[in-house]
Specification:
Strand order of the largest sheet: 1-2-5-4-3-6
Strand content: 25-35%
Number of helices: 3
Order of helices and strands: HHHEEEEEE
Number of domains: 1
Largest sheet: 6 strands, antiparallel
Helix content: 10-25%
Distance between the termini: 40 Å
């Protein structure tokens, strides 16, 4: 048990918390989703305690805990693996440093945020004040087997 706790801390580590710009991304997507999908996303995030930054921070993946399985009623109806939203944001005082984030669902649950570039290379750090410039919802998470607008 002690080894598993140590392994989890090493694997998911100190970068497991969400940065402020990631909270901005999730808030912008919630505002554009339908009420049911937005509530399901919020509920799912409560069951996804493990977060792992991959590819130098370009990918933030969310993983469920084994002791507390996610209830079926909060899963999305759409069963496809898909990019369901794209968010563009920039730093508050700059107009040229745009960061694009794609949000993915896999196996009926929120899975990851994937950036077009490592956020820190564009000056995005925890605490960076941002402005969301565009939010596009690509797929209906509440319709079974929905295909996104871009075919993803």
């Amino acid at each position: 048990m002690l080894l598993k706790g140590l392994f989890d801390r090493l694997l998911f580590g100190p970068n497991a918390r969400l940065f402020t710009y990631e909270l901005d991304i999730l808030a912008a997507v919630r505002a554009k989703l339908g009420q049911s999908a937005s509530h399901r996303l919020d509920a799912q995030l409560q069951y996804l305690p493990y977060r792992q930054r991959q590819d130098g921070g370009r990918i933030l993946a969310f993983f469920p805990g084994k002791r507390n399985p996610m209830p079926a009623e909060i899963l999305f109806d759409n069963t496809q693996e898909l990019c369901f939203a794209v968010v563009e944001l920039r730093r508050l005082k700059e107009t040229d440093k745009l960061l694009t984030a794609q949000l993915y669902a896999v196996n009926r649950r929120f899975f990851s945020i994937e950036y077009d570039m490592t956020p820190s290379l564009k000056g995005f750090q925890d605490g960076t004040q941002t402005i969301v410039t565009n939010v596009r919802i690509n797929a209906d998470l509440e319709t079974p087997q929905s295909t996104g607008k871009n075919g993803s």
